[in-house]
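User: Second chain of the day. Same drill as before.
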Amino acid sequence: MMKFGTKTIHAGIHPDPSSGAIMTPIFQTSTYVQDAPGDHKGFEYARTQNPTRNVLQDNLAALENGKYGVAFASGLAAMDAILKMLKSGDEVLAVNDLYGGSYRLLTTIYSQFGIESRFVDMTSTDKIEEQISSKTKLIWIETPTNPMLSVVDIAAICKIAKSKKVKVVVDNTFASPYLQTPLDMGADLVLHSATKYLGGHSDVVMGIIATKSKALADKLYFIQNASGGVPGPQDCFLVLRGIKTLHLRVERSSQNAFAIAKYLLGHKKVSKVYYPGFKDHPNHKIAKKQMKAFGGMVSFDLKKNNFATAKKILKATKLFALAESLGGVESLIGHPASMTHASIPKEDRMKVGLTDSLIRLSVGVEDVSDLITDLEKALSKA
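Assistant: Same format as last time:
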């Protein structure tokens, strides 16, 4: 069996049979010529199939140790496809520290169709079983969570869910398949915003789902074609290219993030640092068990707990660019309360510790000493 670094470059990828091109070509076409009605080379219409997309789907499935991959135009389009497998009256049990876009999709779109969502603390599994009702059909996990970097015990949740015949989805965006493979821990589906670590260069928007289940894959392929939220072939090419260095980038980002988290922990203007690599993190042992490293994301709060102070820092960094998104080679700094999580009501944000002074870092692959210097200069202005 191929090791991960080899999979990123070779799994599901073969030289183009028509030319021998080592890189998967961009099949920029909307349709395919048929010799007779129904007599074709396996491709009819580009919404339904595209050779570039097929290779990406196979590659990503292999990285997650799954059998099937399904690509969509964005991470939220991928989430939308999963939710379309539910029906009115069903319920989603979701982790209470959730990406703002995911929260918005559940609460403002699918609630209109009679699919309700409840948001619960999943950092402890003690009370999860009693939270599952007869209506619960799906458990939605992020781990590490966005932006509080909480860790959920995937295997434990999946064991409980299986006993209740409830499906489990893990949003693996923050970790990437290099750090953890939820399907191996019992998850039914794993989702990525491929915009982030999989693409890795801040130049594409895409979502991908992986599964071991043919039944679930067939439903998702049907929805992919019927609803049409597919990525273009050039986007698929860009993510394929990004994946080839995934292990190298995530490893470097994780090393940099650990160093930056330790630096922030000792800073006089910082009140708290959220990072699963610290031994006093509530679920550090679980993170150590289910992750290869602790990732490239760090969140921290300020002793002067207000947006005005945070804003001074956000405006002062030079290498950390103020922008939404994460997982690129370049470092980013963001303010979840006003950016990525603004759609979540303040009272719900505050329940999980997401204050107006919380700052989130996506640590890139630059020289870590330059990144620390950049933060030091910015913090001095707070």
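The longest helix spans residues 246-265.

User: Great, on to the next one.
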